Amino acid sequence: MAIDFGWWKKTPEDGKFQINVSVHGGNIEWTRKQGHFKQWETYAPPTDEDWDRLLYEAEKRVPRRLISPKQFAAIKALRPQ
């Protein structure tokens, strides 16, 4: 089962764009989209701020039982050191 996370980000260089992160079976895929009629493109490399936001979004879902603590630990393990 894939777990999807999404949020908006704004930078001075790129403006406002949407980030989507899909976690499935120990793999993680970062994509971004800027504009309504644009296609999703690979978002690489994610910054430390992006990883912090992903862990924040995942942590919010654990108490509501949308993801299990085991899934949260797996997401934390995917972050490069």
Helix-strand blueprint:
Layout: E1 3-11, E2 15-24, E3 27-33, E4 41-42, H1 48-61, H2 69-78
Antiparallel strand pairs: 1-2, 2-3, 3-4
Question: What descriptors fit this protein?
Answer:
single chain, 81 residues, alpha+beta, 4-stranded antiparallel beta sheet, 30% helix, 35% strand
- Relative helix content: 25-40%
Biggest sheet architecture: 4 strands, antiparallel
Helix and strand string, N-terminal first?
A: EEEEHH
Domains, number: 1
The general outline is globular
Structure described in brief:
The chain is an alpha+beta fold and 81 residues long.
Protein model, in words:
- The protein has 81 residues and is of the alpha+beta class.
- It has one domain.
- The protein has two helices and four strands, in the order E-E-E-E-H-H.
- It has a four-stranded antiparallel beta sheet, covered by helices on one side.
- A hairpin with a 7-residue loop joins strand 3 (27-33) and strand 4.
- The longest helix is centred in the C-terminal third of the chain and has 14 residues, at 48-61.
- The chain starts with a strand and ends with a helix.
